[in-house]
Amino acid sequence: ELAQRRMCFIGGQVVEALPENGLGGDRLEAVGVHKNLILAIEVDADAPILVCGELKKGSCWHGALDFQTGHFNLQSTFPVEKIDQYPCTNDFEIGFSPWTYYTDELDWVLNSGATPSGSTGPSSAYEGSRYGHIEGTSPNHPNKTAVLQAEFDFFGVVDPKIDYAYHMYATDSGMGSLYFEVSTNSGNSWATLWSKSGNQGDAWSTNQVDLSAYEGATSVALRFRGVTGSNFTSDMALDEIVVSGNTFDSDSDGMPNAWETLYFGGPTNATPGGNSDGDSFNNLQEYIAGLNPTNSDSFELYNLNPGSSNWFEWSAMTGRIYSVYWTDMLGVKPFAMLQSNLTSGVFTDSLHSAETEGFYKLEVQVAP
Asked: What is the pLDDT of residues 179-189, one digit of tens each?
């Protein structure tokens, strides 16, 4: 029965089921685009349901789909991209990105509210409504490992650091261990920078790790490695992970040294008002928007879907804040703000679904 349905995904939820439309066998394809990810579903009566897809940059992703709730947890087989814009924040509200969880023995999963097991785990998120956690219920113990990993480029970054909230609560001795580790040789070896073991109380704790030893390094892999303890009371959790640092700008022109060096061959070679590619954005605007200043590309909105809830997407940059504005008479009425302080590249507008014509404006600024 499931193999006869095609699913569409928006923001990690199944929102529509359509006839298979001629697709044969147990494989369903081309079900939609989630940001840069082209998704598909593979259904096998004798195996778990899989969501699979391919990023435009070539990474392979898969994850588990829950047909009861319509949610799925998305993961990749290796880091999608190297992060070079700061601060880089993940609050788990819309997924794991840019962090990637690796399925070896155990997965990190998204959750809101309390974890399924009693006497362990948080009852709510540290901030917002969702967090990432390891579920310790059998067969996920003892000594089962789950990894959450991302890769960073600290070239031109001064005093990099990471802040995060963690929760490790158990009413007995069943809680395991949580490690924060770093690798500078593509994961061939790892150094432990922080760890906790055993019950830490029924409250969220925060920690900061100084990463200044890796200042200037162009390939730094960071990971959280959780190892479950002796029984089910091993539900450990993470929330509000922020990697930050000072992006050095020696000529104080608003464009970091690393960015100027990347596109103009030197840390002070670009001028803010210059426009070498001849498009409608100057160099400073190109940096803020996350564009290539040597290529006349444009900042595009895509997947614009008018209807009961107008929604659209854009390629959001880490270290940026977005605001969305609306007017129904361009050039006559001023734009009114609909939402500010967006960090993800998805916006839904349910206020103007009945409008026959209207205009959106997307504003982007560098996060403070």
From this structure: 999 999 988 89
